[in-house]
Amino acid sequence: MDRMPQWADVVLIPLISLILAAILSALVILGIGEDPVAAVRMMVNGAVGSTYGWGYTLYYATNFMFTGLAVAVAFHARLFNIGGEGQAMLGGLGVALVCLHVPWPHWSVALVAAAISAAAFGAAWAAIPAWLQARRGSHIVITTIMFNYIAAAVLNYMLVTALRPRGSMDPATARFPEAVHLPTFQQIFSSAGQPLFRGAPANISFFVAVFACIAVWALIWRTRLGYEIRAYGHSETGARYAGISPFRITMIAMLISGGLAGMMAINNVMGEAERLVLNATEGAGFIGIAVALMGRSHPFGVFLAAILFGFLYQGGAELALWTNIPRELIVVIQALVILFTGALDNMVRMPLERLFQAIGRKRRDAGEGAPKPGPRSAQHEPEPEP
Amino acid sequence: MSADDPAERQETAVPAIELKGISKAFGPVQANRDISIRVMPGTIHGIIGENGAGKSTLMSILYGFYKADRGEIFINGRKTDIPDSQAAIAAGIGMVFQHFKLVETFTVLENVILGAEDGRLLKPSLAKARRLLKELAAEYELNVDPDAVISDIGVGMQQRVEILKALYRQADILILDEPTGVLTPSEADQLFRILHRLKDEGKTIVLITHKLREIMEATDTVSVMRRGEMTATVRTAETSPEHLAELMVGRKVLLRVDKAPVRAGRTVLEVENLRVIDEEGVERIRGIDLKVRAGEIVGLAGVAGNGQSELLEVLGGMRAATGLVRLNGEALALSGPGSDGQARRAAGIAHVPEDRQREGLIMEFHAWENVGFGYHRDPAYRRGAVFMNNAALRADTEAKIAQYDIRPANCWLTARNFSGGNQQKIVVAREMERNPDLLLVGQPTRGVDIGAIEFIHKQIVALRDAGKAVLLVSVELEEILGLSDRIAVMFDGRIMGERLPGATDEKELGLLMAGMAREAA
Amino acid sequence: MDFVTLIQVLDSTVRMATPLLLACLAGLFSERAGIFDIGLEGKMLAAAFFSAAVAAITGNVWLGLLAGVGASLLLSGLHGLASITFRGNQLISGVAINFLAAGMTVLIAQDWFEQGGRTPSLTGPGRFPPITLPFAESLAGVPVLGPVYSELISGHPVLVYVAFLAVPASWWILFRTRFGLRLRAVGENPAAVDTAGVSVVALRYGAVAICGLLCGIAGAYLATALQAGFVKDMTAGRGFIALAALIFAKWRPWHAMWACLLFGFLQAVALRYQNIDVGGFTIPVQAMDALPYVLTVLILAGFVGRAIPPRAGGEPYVKER
């Protein structure tokens, strides 16, 4: 119900949720005998205090933009895709196959091909749960979780058998050829006199991710397909009335979602590791859930939330390096963000709604005397387009 | 009626229920405003009012489902707090909700004892309930198989289970909320026989309905509600349907819609041997034939759940079927590609669906987005191959808001923020302005205020006068009789007969709706 | 496979099936009451850590069990708060709880023990010892039945017997008691329970608490009986396999036991044999790992019988007329 102005829904609720998560995280840090202020200072220094830190922050953020967008697109169709992790793993497979088996003349061509291949693999991995949901009614949350495990087994098998170079003990592919190495921020932004982003993994795929944010925004809010996805997400019976095929939307939304998750591989596999290793995704698929929830499934929100989580990831790594706080602190923060912005949403929302209602009533009473029964919309102002 | 005149008792006895000054608001909507009422023991007390008048809210407060903002409740003269259903049950109140509250996978017996078990183990409770159920069945003609699973029995039976639940909890006061909505007239008659039997045993019965006929036939006293207020309480014997109708709507109502004589033209819609089998494998439409001509309104009467909804859904492209449907002489696809809502719209069918909140509108969408709903692929709303032309859509919305007097006149509000009547106007504006060959209209005035009802009826008639074909589905017989040029009655997936509105009455239609009197056609 | 090996594999099956069974019954109670719980994994993990940690510190495994159950109950309470009181999304709440447990256990383990996110190895009274059932030794010599009794049935930690006794107990509670009737009703149609004058909220919290209790025992078993201490992410997806078993069992206790034994058997086989030769064709170990998940997907797809979850599952209850 629109009991609050939209800005409160879009800005205030995520902000309050974030503050709550931050307070609890600070308590956790206190609880393990460390100083939260010092910890934050160290995180800020480590993550955004240098171009090196930024290089890592943005590298992580790139991963999270892809997976966050993946979850967000599915959310718009009211599908909860927990399978981003598995889809990103398969995307890695797609990248590795393209990079290893085709002699690419230039990284740019390879990037396009790898992105397409990654998206195709990720989409294919999402297509099965999508089809099972649309045609057989299998709960997509459970099937995508199962597909994460199956993906891990598939990847494991591929890496220890077919893809492992002869004589290597490591369950990983061979290194990708020089020609497909993506330009890093260091190569892009450094000048002869001033080296920037030295050694940091951020690379050209960051811009692909930013482009993906814009593309998803246009898709959801400006195209007919986006209109149909949102309509289906709000009401399945409504979609049937309007001649929007639930099967088609479920499939398309999940293909796009899986494709986006898969595309993450151009960053972590092609851009950073330059080979496919076990557990290359490092849980980024799951962080996408937190990012999408926090960003309210809006691409711009996803962009901001991804950078925030990139910051947390890099900052957390610094903490783990210099203090007794393990990296798992990030997992805790991620959990708290999911908890407050996702599951306990109403805990933040209900008091706020009451507050805004009280304000609305006061304003109305002052304006036109006693409240009248009737359409309850009188007190609303026009809202800006999201 | 019983020999002992209930009206007389009313003067002397302590009321079974007395409500004093009950008020309840949901957000800015005042559902009940300072309501006082006395219900005398051993009577059937009707509460009548339009949809949204606040009847159900009032009774839900009495059953502890909602908490009143202000006011007091007295049961048998004692002030009683009813914070939850438990307290209501303890006070001897039983309620039969409009939508039954039964566990579908449980047996009748399990449903009856749920919440009223004796002790922690089930076995003794079930044995006792079985015994008691047998006694109740004999006493009130409430026969049901105690071991039947709820999902296997019909709605009439399910309603009996609800009544048995209340009686098993030794309720002295029984509230029934719109109990006949899902029943055929004969099932309803059966229900009223049971209610009279209960009354004779000294139970107090509150009957909530918006149907005048039921009030006149079944009740001793009737209270009228309008817009959250109690406008009158009168003895049924001393009033008339016209008077009650006036009290309900607050002014003399036009039961007939003004319209010119029908000038039907060529056949627009032709349905032949249409059959529908639903998701559960039940045949909902069992071979029907129907014609709708240009310039005529055909009304489909029937108790909810007899196939009318499914027919609209088939014609609107929401459901697959077999058989033959021709529009302007051309056969429509009834399943597979080309049978969806988009294809129907392209063929010239517009559809005001029965449930605007779940079908006709996306409640979270802005008004302007809803004005494009279903027509979002229209070239006028398109920019290039993939993009929407939102500006065009908004301009179009502004025009419709002005033309149909939609309030508030703000195309940025979400559908949820419009009243029922204005929501319906958005749907009606969208569908009528397509200038369709055939308009499908389902329950056009359900939950719509009086002013908007009149407006919507006029629009439908205007479209008919412009030479379009209209197929109207409504469970309100008055609406069917007032609007239609021809009436078809559906029962159990079949068309029982066709009548002209001038040559029939509610009674005959009621019999047809009950599946009887096919020979009387 | 000879008889001795078979007994060994089945023995291992029982041990692997026990945590699955406890978690599966936990999920059964929760989901039968209409609360989806994909946070079984997290609750088990938290219980595994706290039971091992307290057992390591106090040297008393029973105190450890208590602590594990306490931790699991706390997370259950959080899930209840989110999904019952605040009517949040139950799936998202479950996801959050899984991450919360994954992070917090390592964080606290590092703070308390500084061994890289693990607890010290448990010894002696810090672990649940195997119990020798009466006559196990004297009957060991009897052919076939002797080894079955003395090796397979006897000689497990007490929690194994608790798990398998929990099966008939769960069945009895669900289908023979008032509480069970109401619990099943609240998962099918909470409005029916509410209008019958029974508190939906209390019932659901009750179910969630039982879920927490059983998950707690499952986690404690993992860390103090199956293994000797906590290591990071030691549940290794068992919560999800339990969920799979629950769907496989169509939310019925006895079927849950057979499903868990099946999945336990798969784990036991995968543990013992790396690659299995079947007539010249080698089944890789990864295929064995993935088999429970593949089976679940097939069941969910309705290719192996239809699984219909409790009707009100996943939906927060809002009063409506």
How would you summarize the topology of this molecule?
The complex is a heterotrimer of chains A (386), B (521) and C (321).
Chain A: H1 6-31, H2 36-48, H3 51-76, H4 84-101, H5 107-136, H6 140-160, H7 185-189, H8 205-222, H9 224-234, H10 236-241, H11 246-263, H12 265-273, H13 284-294, H14 299-322, H15 328-343, H16 345-368
Chain B: H1 6-12, E1 17-26, E2 29-39, E3 44-49, H2 55-62, E4 70-75, E5 78-79, H3 85-90, E6 93-96, H4 108-113, H5 122-140, H6 155-168, E7 173-177, H7 185-200, E8 204-209, H8 212-218, E9 221-226, E10 229-235, H9 241-249, E11 267-277, E12 283-293, E13 297-301, H10 308-315, E14 322-327, E15 330-331, H11 341-347, E16 349-352, H12 356-360, H13 367-371, E17 382-383, E18 387-388, H14 390-403, H15 420-432, E19 438-442, H16 450-465, E20 469-473, H17 477-483, E21 486-491, E22 494-499, H18 506-513
Parallel strand pairs in B: 3-8, 3-9, 6-7, 7-8, 13-20, 13-21, 16-19, 19-20
Antiparallel strand pairs in B: 1-2, 1-4, 4-5, 9-10, 11-12, 11-14, 14-15, 17-18, 21-22
Chain C: H1 3-32, H2 40-58, H3 61-85, H4 90-113, E1 130-131, H5 136-139, H6 145-153, E2 156-157, H7 158-176, H8 178-188, H9 190-195, H10 200-226, H11 238-248, H12 253-272, E3 276-278, E4 281-283, H13 285-300
Antiparallel strand pairs in C: 1-2, 3-4
In short:
The complex is a heterotrimer of chains A (386), B (521) and C (321). Chain A is an all-alpha fold.
Characterization of the model:
The complex is a heterotrimer of chains A (386), B (521) and C (321). By secondary structure, chain A is an all-alpha fold. Chain A has a domain at 62-306: ABC transporter involved in vitamin B12 uptake, BtuC (Orthogonal Bundle), CATH 1.10.3470. Chain A contains 16 helices and no strands. Chain A has helices spanning 6-31, 36-48, 51-76, 84-101, 107-136, 140-160, 185-189, 205-222, 224-234, 236-241, 246-263, 265-273, 284-294, 299-322, 328-343, 345-368. The two termini of chain A are 16 Å apart. Mean pLDDT of chain A is 88; it is low at 368-386. Chain B folds into 3 domains: 1-92 and 172-248, P-loop containing nucleotide triphosphate hydrolases (Rossmann fold), CATH 3.40.50.300; 102-171, no CATH class; 267-360 and 438-513, P-loop containing nucleotide triphosphate hydrolases (Rossmann fold, 3-Layer(aba) Sandwich). Chain B is built from 18 helices and 22 strands. Chain B has a 6-stranded mixed sheet with strand order 6-7-8-3-9-10, with helices on both faces. A 6-stranded mixed sheet of chain B has the order 16-19-20-13-21-22, sandwiched between helices. In chain B, a hairpin with a 2-residue loop joins strand 1 (17-26) and strand 2 (29-39). The longest helix of chain B has 19 residues, at 122-140. Chain C is mostly helical and 321 residues long. Chain C has a domain at 19-128 and 136-238. Helices cover 69% and strands 3% of the residues of chain C. Chain C contains 13 helices and 4 strands. In chain C, helix 8 (178-188) crosses helix 10, helix 11 crosses helix 12 (253-272) and helix 12 runs antiparallel to helix 13 (285-300). The longest helix of chain C is centred in the N-terminal third of the chain and has 30 residues, at 3-32. Chain C is globular. The N and C termini of chain C lie far apart (63 Å). Classes of the chains: A mainly alpha (386), B alpha/beta (521), C mainly alpha (321).
